[in-house]
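Notebook p. 47: complex prediction with zinc ion.
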Amino acid sequence: MIDVVDAATRSRMMSGIRGKNTQPEVRLRSALHRRGFRFRVNKVGLPGRPDIVLASRRAVVLVHGCFWHRHDGCRFTTTPATRRRFWTEKFGQNIERDARNLKELEALGWRVWIVWECEIRKDFEDAVDRVARWLDRGKSTP
Ligand SMILES: [Zn+2]
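Predicted complex, structure tokens below:
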């Protein structure tokens, strides 16, 4: 391949590309799409604006960042050392909102699967397998 840009420019380009493509929900959606799952753009404004909506299966897949959504017992679920009260409140609100969204989605007849970002980072294909199996089984998250 011929180098047409200098190293700094290329590095900027790469990080720009990486920033977009490696967003976990984008990666997961593409992988599921490759496996034949089809999505509809979420126009109805579902609670919590889910990342991945499979309308025909009445299924929603949420990709949760471990830090913001407080993945229980996860090493990414850290709490910043400063402004403790701010963070505690913030995290509390996030947890409440997640619980509320989940309830509302289920009340609307959607089944919901939560994928934690660390699962995607750890073994992406494994995470995709689990979601795909769940989608095919047609049951809710245990
Ligand atoms: Zn996690």
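Notes: The chain has six helices and three strands. Helices lie at 7-21, 24-34, 66-69, 84-107, 117-122, 124-137.
Next step: compare against the earlier run before touching the bench.
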